[in-house]
Amino acid sequence: MVNNNTQVKVLVPLLLLSPVTWSAPPLKIHVFEQEEQKEPANQVSKVPLLEMHVFEQQKQAPINQKTQAPLLKMHVFDSSPEMKNNAVVAKRYTNKNTPEKDELALSYVKSESYLKVGYRQDDLQWSIAGPEGTPNILSELTWKDIKIATVSTGTTFIFESNWLIDLNLLFGSIYSGENQDSDYLGDDRTFEFSRSNNSSDEGSVLDISVATGYNWTFPFNQKSPYPSIELQPQIGLSYYSQNLKATDGNQTLAADFLEFQVPLGAFPSLNATYDATWFGPWLGLTSKFNFTDSFSLSLKLEYHYVKYGSTADWNLRGDFSHPESFTQKADGYGLIGDIEAEFKLDTQLALNLSISYQDWQAHNNGVDKKFLSDDTTLTTQFNGIDWKSVGANVGLIYSF
Predict the structure, then answer these.
(1) Regarding predicted confidence, which is higher, 294 or 40?
(2) Rounded to two decimals, what is the model's pTM?
(3) Domains, the chain, ordered by start
């Protein structure tokens, strides 16, 4: 092995003769050699590590000012045959004081969570046909002015690749509403022979939606991020449900030409339930206009393909089974439009105001199946259902 002093004596003349040396600042070279350590035969032996520290002197540094020169560090590894992978050895000698950065496979660059309270009003109507389709409307049920107090929450994650995940949940409690049950003997709602107008001030609603999409941002001015527009096409899956009730019955029409007479007036024992569900995939587009750093407007449109299903319990019908008196199913669609205004309160908190409108219909492949008390089943045509809703919300959005 060559002595360290010999190495320095050879290197210094070479540096002095080099033309680069004359034009560059003086360099100081410190060469250290680590002593070899014997290791067990079954372990890969560590090789000598030479560290070369090169300091560049400042030309004119004030006397009272401490100068810190850049540090250049050179690691020289033995290239003997037993060293099959220098990268492994290099990792051993990495400065352990330097923390390693853990990179997550799905690290997001932006996320928002919201909490809102609001008001929603729903109208829902469905009908069935008689046996073999006659009359075309035998019975029709309407829930009108269903007033709902809602609370909703959700989170959006936008990742470094601009892909996003969107989660939304809404729960509502019904506190007011009206129900009407009408029966007909003729087509197109003619020869109405029974009608009851009832209360519907109980029940609940539940909305669940999950989606993924992509976020594009287009600034109008290349020199400034505002104003700008964000476009988010999305594809998702949703589940919407309504748990409706009819209580405090009041018979308001009873035909006198029937063999049996239904007395007019109240029948408080009514406690019928109707549970409706809308489930399926959807496509949507959100357009967000960022006017300034503190104000933005968003417009969201969604188209849903849905499988509709319902289960009912008509508690006063002795000829029906209980608690499942009949079920209904059909195919349809839903349209949702939402407008939101966002006002930033600080860098992480924003005030959100929104108005939404929904239009849902399920009229295709409708089937109504009644379960009778004698364990028989009667199947007839389900004409379909229409559900319309309008709502308003206010809440806070937290960015993190």
Answers:
(1) 294
(2) 0.72
(3) 4-92 (no CATH), 109-399 (2.40.128.90)
